[in-house]
Design brief:
Length: 286
């Protein structure tokens, strides 16, 4: 467990304070994930992968939106399951870290699958409170959520068998983050990252990628930055998968829902022109 931290111990920069304020003051602005989470009580903060069932667009108009929501939630749950599939040999006695946990959906799924304890950290007090409340509603007692910063968690060195970030590294300096993850991981422990990355081969970020940055108030990293930061912190990549083709159906389906936010087109155009990639990166602590 971490000690109770004061606000200024967690939020150390103006940028961190602005990101936290956004999620605290506009908790339902991510209305897509919030609505999808109402399907089964598992609330995510990420996108989906897999072949979409576009037949949900057919049938009675009055139930069309409900069918879309259920299918989008199935795809985002498939994404979380893929991440969990890559955590390695996780046993009940292990402790895991969800770095940038959002409303806690993947942490809940991890405890249900592995029977181990998961700590989630978020710089949004709203998200932490929501995640703890929802875990209690679901009867999940091995997922604990903390107001904290993934760059300086306060957890014990070598205490984690696995750590993951799920579409959260675009809010941090990856060299700082990976240094903390390397400190926390036991030798041979795994770090799994699912993230969008700008394609270095295109030079500067495309206009579509810049639009995604502006929409979410984030800073999408170049693909090469991830591998440089891993190498600098004794994290050895053992698997890299380009999930871009697998996420395009999610975004195409999402353009049809009433929940569409307008960011769908920049995602689709940048994925299709190759300037943006959706990656799964698995690394082990040396």
């Amino acid at each position: 467990m971490t000690a109770v931290l004061e606000n200024n111990e967690v939020l150390r920069t103006a940028y961190q304070r602005s990101v936290a304020a956004y999620w605290n003051d506009n908790p339902n602005d991510d209305r897509v994930n919030y609505k999808l989470g109402e399907v089964d009580g598992i609330f995510h903060h990420h996108y989906g992968i897999g072949a979409a069932d576009f037949s949900v667009l057919e049938g009675p108009e009055e139930s069309r939106e409900d069918r879309l929501i259920h299918e989008l939630h199935r795809l985002e749950t498939a994404q979380a399951n893929l991440l969990l599939d890559n955590l390695g040999d996780i046993r009940p006695e292990h402790r895991l870290l969800d770095a940038g946990c959002g409303r806690g959906g993947t942490s809940v799924m991890a405890t249900q699958r592995f029977g181990c304890h998961v700590d989630g950290v978020s710089i949004s007090q709203y998200q932490v409170d929501f995640a703890n409340t929802q875990a209690a509603k679901l009867g999940v007692d091995k997922a604990s959520f903390h107001f904290g910063n993934m760059l300086h968690t306060g957890f014990e060195t070598g205490s984690r068998q696995a750590i993951w970030t799920n579409e959260t590294t675009m809010y941090v300096d990856v060299f700082e983050a990976f240094a903390e993850f390397s400190r926390l991981l036991a030798p041979g422990g795994r770090y799994v990252n699912i993230t969008g990355a700008a394609n270095d081969l295109n030079g500067m970020k495309s206009r579509a990628v810049t639009a995604i940055d502006a929409h979410y108030g984030c800073n999408i990293h170049l693909r090469s930055e991830y591998f440089a930061a891993l190498a600098a912190n004794d994290l050895i990549p053992i698997k890299v998968i380009d999930l871009t083709p697998d996420t395009i159906p999610y975004w195409e389906l999402r353009t049809h829902t009433e929940l569409a936010t307008g960011v769908e087109n920049p995602f689709l155009s940048s994925y299709k022109d190759g300037s943006f990639q959706y990656l799964l990166i698995v690394a082990e602590k040396a």
